Amino acid sequence: MTSSSLAIVIPVGIGVWILLWMWAIPRASDRIRSVLDGRIGYGPLVGLIDLVSCTLSRTLHRVRYVGFEDLPTPFRHGDVGGGVVVANHSAGVDPFIVQTGLRRLIRWMMWAEMMDPRLDFAWKAGQALPVSYGSQDAATLRKAVRHVKEGGLIGIFPEGTIARPPREIRPFQPGVGLLARLSKAPVLVLWIHDTPYTETAGGSIFRRSHSVVEFVGVFDLSGEKDPATATAILRNALADHSGWPRNEESTLTIGDTEPTEEP
Predict the structure, then answer these.
(1) Contact 96, 49 (CB under 8 A)
(2) How far is it, in rounded angstroms, from Cα 97 to Cα 157?
(3) Long-range contacts of 205-209 (CB under 8 A, 24+ apart)
C-alpha cells in the first residue's frame, strides 16, 4: 500500500474506530446500569455494592446460611412488605453477609461514629440511618418506622457495636423493642458467628473466614406494650439459640436516654 493510500486509510480507520467506540460505550453503559439496578433495585450503585458484597461473601468468607430455606415472608428474595432484621454484631463484615443472604435491600441503623466519611457515598446509596443512642434519635426512629410501614426492611445490631471479647451476648438497646412495637412488623432474628475477629471493624471485611449466618426465628411483637420486654424477648431468643453466655456490660458508654417519642 502506497504512502498516499495509508494517509487516507489510517485517518478513516481511526474515525470509524472512534464512531464505533462512541456508539458502543453508551449502550454497554446502559446495559451495565440496567443489570446492576436489577439485582435488588434502588439504583445501579446499590447494585454494584450488592455485587461486591455477594462476591466477598461467597469467595472470601464462604458464608454458610443455616435455616434460610425456612425464611418466611417478607424476608425472601423478591418479597414485598416491611420487616425488621436483628442480629448480634460480631464483625464489620456482618451487614454485608446478612444482605447477601436475604437478597433484599436492608436499611441499616448504624452508630454514627462508625460511619467512615470516606464511604459516605455507600451510606447514602444504602440509605443508612445514623444513630447516636441518645434522645436525639427520635427523628431517626420515625424514619425507620415509616420505612418499614412503607414496605421496606430495617436492620439493626441492638448490642450497639461489635461485641468484644467475642462469643458473648451483650445487652440489647431498648430502642429495638420500640421499633418492633411501633412498626408492627415481623422481626427476623439471626445469629452471626465464625466471622474474622480483628482489632478494627474494617479489618474483618477482607480477611478469609468460614462465616455462618443462622436463622433463629421470626417474632411478632406488635402487641407487646413494653419496649423493654420486647427487647428482652429478642435477646433471650438469640442467647438461648447460640448458647453463648450473657455479658450484662453494655458495649456503649455514650448517649443519655433511648428515644421514646412515638412517630
Answers:
(1) no
(2) 13
(3) 205/56, 205/92, 205/93, 205/96, 206/56, 206/60, 207/60, 208/60, 208/61, 208/62, 209/60, 209/61, 209/62, 209/93
49: cell is 455494592
Q: In the structure grid, which three cell numbers stand for residue 106, read together? A: 436492608
Say what the pTM is: 0.83
Q: What number is the average pLDDT over the span 12-21?
A: 56
Given a contact cutoff of 8 angstroms between Cβ atoms, the answer to whether 145 and 263 are in contact is yes
DSSP 161-181: S--SSSS-BPPPPTHHHHHHH
Give yes or no for residue 3 having a pLDDT over 70: no
**Is residue 126 scored above 90 in pLDDT?**
no
Beta strands in the chain, from DSSP E residues, in sequence order: 64-66, 83-87, 106-111, 129-131, 153-156, 187-193, 212-219
* Separation between Cα atoms, residue 263 and residue 260, nearest integer Å: 9
By the 8 A CB rule, do 169 and 98 touch?
no
- Cα gap 98→104, rounded to integer Å: 10
Q: Tell me, what's the pLDDT at 212?
A: 98
Q: Strands 83-87, 64-66: parallel, antiparallel or unpaired by DSSP?
A: unpaired
Q: Are strands 106-111 and 129-131 parallel, antiparallel or unpaired?
A: parallel
